[in-house]
Design brief:
about 150 residues, Small Protein B, Chain: A, seven-stranded antiparallel β-sheet, two-stranded antiparallel ribbon, 9 strands, about 35% strand, globular
């Protein structure tokens, strides 16, 4: 598995309750652009319409050598999920306050995969506590490194 990008902002703004892997329908120049790492999650999210899932708001920059084969960088991209997975996701977002967001995008066996998260938005105090936990964890790791360096 080769990680292309991780949606760090989503991990800060949401509590991820459940994750799921999905394929994405892409054009050739989009795949080449992803290999170069040219994408931005910005305000991307997943919508379910007519028993199909779509990724909305993911910006994949046009491939430099793609000329006329380049497509709209902000177009909706269909996600490859089976019927049961779509039903489970739809049931998950029917609960109040839950949404579907892309967590990370990566290559697996040469295919582009997307990790979808069923998420609940964090309140301001939740963000502060998670930030404090990260800082404490970072301090502990540095102290451990300092102690092991002396031996």
């Amino acid at each position: 598995m080769k990680l292309i990008a991780k949606n760090r902002r989503a991990l800060y703004e949401y509590d991820i309750l459940e994750t799921l892997e999905a394929g994405i329908v892409l054009k050739g120049t989009e795949v080449k652009s992803l290999r170069q790492g040219n994408l931005a999650f910005a305000d991307s999210w997943i919508s379910i319409r007519d028993n199909e899932a779509f990724l909305i708001g993911l910006h994949i920059s046009p491939y430099e050598q793609g000329n006329r084969f380049n497509v709209d960088p902000m177009r909706e991209r269909k996600l490859l999920l089976n019927r049961n997975e779509i039903r489970n996701l739809e049931a998950g977002i029917m609960q109040k306050g839950l949404t579907l967001i892309p967590v990370k995008i990566y290559f697996r066996k040469g295919l582009v995969k997307l990790e979808i998260g069923v998420a609940r938005g964090k309140k301001l105090h939740d963000k502060r506590t998670s930030q404090q936990e990260r800082e404490v964890k970072r301090m502990i790791e540095t102290k451990l490194k300092e102690q092991t360096k002396g031996y």
